[in-house]
């Protein structure tokens, strides 16, 4: 067993960029959203830099980038909100089209289940997409709790989602490991007093995850088997 799991009873996983590569479908939904308004469509490499703070911020970043490039007027709140609604609509239709589970994820989840560790999901993704995605990718059945970016009053990097899940399952911070791909996961984990583990293959706004200072970095979750 990997030493980072010593004394751990609860593992909280981030979703996008940690368990699944969802950027192709997020990109497609964002492209549909922008193109139906005749706005410039973003490329996948750009979207990869923008994911991490939930869907509203994703739409804001797409509009902000287009306006910074002089391709449109600065967006007002009404436009951001309207496009966010359309984004949610399109993503709801295509969330599982090209999204893939990263190597080692199934094996890791099955191994911790066999060890009787409690596993929960703490993502900034809107909660309505979580269960259908997990079902579609055969990842259902591992998680005791599913917390989305709109489930509680505040989302990562705020510690609230982690404090909530620890309270719900009766785990102390010292018994809890936060696993994620971005600085927001590491900050949330650190602020909640948890152990933190980073993966380098996801989305961290183009920065190495080491810069966020997690306790441990693993190349793949297979290392936790
Ligand atoms: O929806 C996002 O922006 C990121 O979601 P995550 O917290 O699962 O990485
Ligand atoms: Mg993530």
TrEMBL record:
Pathway: Organic acid metabolism; glycolate biosynthesis; glycolate from 2-phosphoglycolate: step 1/1
Catalytic activity: 2-phosphoglycolate + H2O = glycolate + phosphate
Matches recorded under CDD domains: HAD_PGPase (cd16417)
Active site feature: 14
EC numbers: 3.1.3.18
InterPro entries listed in its UniProt record: HAD-like_hydrolase_sf, HAD-like_sf, HAD-SF_hydro_IA, HAD_2, HAD_sf, PGP-like_dom2, PGPase_prok
Entry similarity comment: Belongs to the HAD-like hydrolase superfamily. CbbY/CbbZ/Gph/YieH family.
Identification of the protein by name: Phosphoglycolate phosphatase
Species for this entry: Larsenimonas rhizosphaerae
């Amino acid at each position: 067993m990997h030493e980072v799991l010593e004394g751990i009873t609860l593992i909280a996983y981030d979703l996008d960029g940690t368990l699944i590569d969802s950027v192709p479908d997020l990109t497609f939904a964002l492209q549909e959203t922008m193109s139906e308004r005749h706005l410039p469509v973003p490329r996948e490499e750009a979207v990869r830099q923008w994911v991490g703070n939930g869907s509203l911020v994703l739409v804001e970043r797409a509009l902000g980038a287009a306006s910074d490039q002089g391709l449109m007027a600065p967006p007002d709140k009404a436009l951001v909100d309207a496009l966010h609604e359309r984004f949610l609509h399109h993503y709801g239709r295509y969330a599982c089209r090209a999204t893939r589970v990263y190597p080692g994820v199934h094996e890791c989840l099955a191994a911790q289940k066999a060890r009787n560790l409690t596993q929960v999901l703490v993502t900034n993704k809107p909660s309505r997409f979580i269960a259908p995605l997990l079902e579609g990718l055969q990842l259902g059945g591992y998680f005791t709790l599913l917390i989305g970016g709109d489930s509680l009053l505040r989302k990562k990097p705020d510690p609230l989602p982690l404090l909530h899940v620890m309270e719900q399952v009766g785990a102390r911070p010292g018994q809890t490991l936060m696993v994620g791909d971005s600085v927001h996961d590491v900050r949330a984990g650190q602020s909640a007093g948890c152990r933190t583990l980073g993966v380098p293959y996801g989305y961290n706004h183009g920065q190495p995850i080491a810069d966020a200072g997690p306790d441990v970095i693993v190349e793949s979750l297979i290392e936790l088997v």
